Amino acid sequence: MDKRGISAVINGDKWLILADTHVGMEFELQGKGVRVPIQTGRIVSNIVSWAEEEGASRVVILGDVKHELPYPIESINEVKLFIENLSKSFEEVVLVAGNHDGGLEQVVNSIGLSNVKFHDSRGFMVNLNGKNALLLHGNSKPSIEDFEKADVLVMGHTHPAVVIQDEHGFVTKRPAILKIKVDKGELGKRLYGRELEGGELSIIVLPAANHLTIGVDVASTLTTVFEAPRTILRYVEPWSIQDRIEVYLTDLTFLGTLDVIKKGGFERVDFDSM
Q1: What predicted TM-score, i.e. pTM, was given to this entire model?
Q2: Ranges for the Calcineurin-like phosphoesterase domain (predicted)?
């Protein structure tokens, strides 16, 4: 199954971690003349199926829970339905604000469900498989206090994907998960303009959980210098550390590091040596 997220033990419980569900995206497509059935039920069904497969009883969505829409009434109704249905299937639902989520906190408060929690775009800290993990959307800098504590940073926002071509010339684009290893001191200096304690920080970037969007090709977008103002990856400077960016399909098939993929190949794993 195409699982667009990861499962992990957070604070002793099994969680499903997702990003960028973009509920209501089909309304924008309809406004552009593309007739797409409402997808809210399918998104909920997919999330519940992924959680059941992983044995997760809780779910967190790392931003862009809803899509930016010119149809506020339709959008609010779909977002409410989405949240209410998730709350029936999970012991706890945690929503982190993204750049598309203006007004989401008010929607959550209006529903008033005790098992639905909301965090702003700076995210929140958890114990993830024994490590200090910072979960956020990726469009805003976290607090410096949280950043200093973090061993792992998990984000969405950039919709990573990879283009694959087979020997017959058939080309497909698939959503991808990135694992980036950075020097925490160097990244902290770029983010906050001050010296911070160094060491290795792992950054996990999740794909969009909405099947209407595959994502953007990382071999094109992350291998050249960019100045996007609203993504933490700008400060990571991925174009300079391509050999430290691991690329996975959503079933966790390892494709190789970004530098290898950029050259048009995939790494071969020697299973006999594992």
Answers
A1: 0.92
A2: 16-167
